[in-house]
Structures are given as C-alpha cells and as structure tokens.
Amino acid sequence: MRVLVVEDEPMLADAIAEWLRDEAHAVDLAHDGGAALERIAVHDYDVVVLDRDLPVVPGDDVCRALVASGAATRVLMLTAAAEITDRVAGLSLGADDYLTKPFAFPELAARIQSLGRRCRPAAPPVLHRSGVTLDPARHEVFRDGRYLSLSKKEFAVLAELLRADGAAVSAEHLLEKAWDEHADPFTGAVRLTILKLRRKLGDPPLVETVTGVGYRFA
User: Fold this and answer.
1) Helix/strand/coil (H/E/C) assignment for every residue in 80-103
2) What does the alpha-carbon distance between residue 81 and residue 214 come to, in Å, rounded to a whole number?
3) Quick one: DSSP state of residue 166?
4) What is the pLDDT along the chain (218 residues), one digit of tens a residue?
5) Domain 2-118 is classified in which CATH homologous superfamily?
6) What is the DSSP letter of 205?
7) Sequence spans of domains, the chain
8) Which helix (H) or strand (E) holds 36?
9) Which residues face 143 on adjacent strands?
10) Please, what CATH class does the domain formed by 127-217 belong to?
11) Are 78 and 50 in contact, with CB atoms under 8 Å apart?
C-alpha cells in the first residue's frame, strides 16, 4: 500500500516509516499539516497516519480536507490525548481509526493493514491465481507449492498484479503503489523489478507485457 505518515517528531516519524517499509509498504513522510496537504493533492494514498497536533495546519484540518475531497483514503489518527472525548472528537471529523501514544508498532501496522483493505474492492486475505499464492499477512509467496523468496518491491508489485485479477496494470500504478515519492519515474525501476519477478516465478511465464498499457498476470 501507499502510506503517508504525518508526524512532527522526526524520530518517531522515521521509526514508523521504517517499520512500515519492512512490511512492504511504500511510505512518504510529512512533518506538518501544510506539507501533508501538498502530498495528498499529488499522490493517491491508501492510508494516512495523521498526528492531531501538527504545526502549520492542524491535523484536524488535514482530516477535514481529506474527507471533504471524497478520496477513498483512510485516516488513522495519532494523539497523546487518551480521553474518550478526544477519541470521539477525532472520529467525528471523519477519521477511520484512532490510536493513542505510546503505541506498539505491530498494532499500528495491523490497523493500517485493516484500513487498507477497506479502501479497496473486497479481496480475499490470501491471493491465488495460476498456481501462485500470496499471503499478505505472512509475507509469503508460493508457486505450485514452491516457496519464492521475493524482495519487498517484488512482493508489492506481485500483490498489485494479483489484485488486478487478470486486468492490465500500468507501470505508473505500480510505481505509485510500491515506491515512495523519491522514486524517479524514469529509472526503469518497475521494468527491472518485473524482470526479476519473472525470473523468480519461473516457467511457464505468468507476467505478460501489454504493449502501451503495462503488465498483466496471466
């Protein structure tokens, strides 16, 4: 998934981002509400992890703007305020979930995974197609019972191809979902990752190139 972490404490923001990247998510960072709104206007995020106490533009205003835009993006609010009234206030703004600090990173990751499922069309927890099985929770991939050792990017790209259920997926979409905002669209990263993925999947080939469109999983 593509996740935006909006947190004004750099060490905490970096720690969250590192944890989520280890979970094979593409993660962007913003340290104030203004920067968050700029990124949201450019990128199609699945989940925004949003601190309520932000400089420049408060987290509440960022949440209101995101909800008003009609985007399918899900919002997980973070705050040091643990009172029930604070949680109710955050949820009433349109946030989808609410987590108080301090929190455990595994719980944060699990909540993000749950929110990500809500912003997509319903899909089975474990993805199957043409003898390939991908388990997002366990980060495991098998082809005809054979375990495949994939990099984080290869795993993320394969997951997007499987979720498309036979439809073609553009390189731009794969870049948007599997890489963060620092990725250079002209580096050929998607093409190289597809090449490595094909090699690991083996024969017969399963990832097809659709000329002028992108890639399709057979």
Assistant:
1) CCCCHHHHHHHHHCCCCEEEECCC
2) 46
3) T
4) 899 999 999 999 999 999 998 888 889 999 999 999 999 998 889 999 999 889 999 999 999 999 888 888 999 999 887 677 777 777 788 889 989 888 999 999 999 988 987 766 555 578 999 999 999 878 899 999 999 999 989 999 999 999 999 999 999 889 888 887 766 665 688 999 999 999 999 999 999 999 989 999 98
5) Response regulator (3.40.50.2300)
6) P
7) 2-118, 127-217
8) helix 33-42
9) 132, 146
10) mainly alpha
11) yes
| Stated length of the chain | 218
* Residue 65: Cβ-neighbour burial (10 angstroms; 0-12, 13-18, 19+): middle
Per DSSP bridges, beta strands 2-6 and 146-148 are unpaired
CA–CA gap between residue 150 and residue 24 (Å, rounded): 11
Look up residue 141 and give its two tokens.
């991939």
**Cβ neighbours for 16, distance < 8 A, ≥ 6 positions apart:** 5, 7, 27, 49, 105, 108
Q: Distance between CA atoms of 154 and 10, rounded to whole angstroms?
A: 28
- Residue 84's identity, in one-letter code, is I
